[in-house]
Amino acid sequence: MKITKPLPREEYKKHLKDLNGGCAFCIMSPELTINEYSFWNWVFAAFPYRKYHTLLISKRHVVRFSELKKEELLELAEITEKLENHYRNNKIIGKGSLFGDQLFTCWRTRQNDKDKKSVSHLHLHFYPKFTNEEPINTDSWDIDIDKFKILK
Ligand SMILES: [Zn+2]
Questions:
Q1: Which of 11, 47, 89, 96 has the fewest beta carbons under 10 Å from its own?
Q2: pLDDT tens, residue order, the chain (152 aa)
């Protein structure tokens, strides 16, 4: 299935099944790409937890943080600052935002994921949130991705 815009979270399991063991992040969808850097791709999450859920994906297929090279880590440090500024400049996070006042950033490793619940290719999640207790948005796929893609 070719993904050209964020889709409801409920469709994620079917998508993983369709991949049949292939890596979802070794092939990028240009429609979901926000920006491409030397070692990283910044993309919209295809099956977002929350509105404006984005992923920063290493261009190389690595699983663990410790596999990253020095230049990849250096660029990561620069990019995370730019990403947060982009969220703030577009008023997706910050005072008065409808989506949250904090930018949540996280990653996990799934090296022994026998159930294939996630993609093992290293990626970081970014999304706006107000508190830790907020549930997943059911309408998280419903955003104007083209408007957010304009880098300020
Ligand atoms: Zn991969």
A1: 96
A2: 788 999 998 888 888 888 887 888 998 889 999 999 999 999 999 999 899 999 999 999 999 999 999 999 999 999 999 999 999 999 999 988 999 999 999 987 765 555 566 778 999 999 999 887 777 778 888 888 888 887 65
Say if residues 126 and 83 touch (Cβ distance below 8 Å). yes
**Distance in Å, CA 142 to ligand 1 centroid:** 26
Please write down the long-range contacts of 141-144, taking CB distance under 8 Å and 24 or more positions apart.
141/5, 141/6, 141/7, 141/8, 141/9, 141/47, 141/48, 142/6, 142/51, 143/6, 143/51, 143/52
- The CATH code of the domain that includes 71 is 3.30.428.10
| 4 is a domain residue | no
Query: What is the distance in A from the centroid of ligand 1 to the CA of 93?
Result: 30
Ligand 1 center to 89 CA (angstroms): 31
Report yes or no on whether pTM surpasses 0.70. Answer: yes
CA of 131 to the centre of ligand 1 (A): 31
What's the structural domain count of the chain?
1
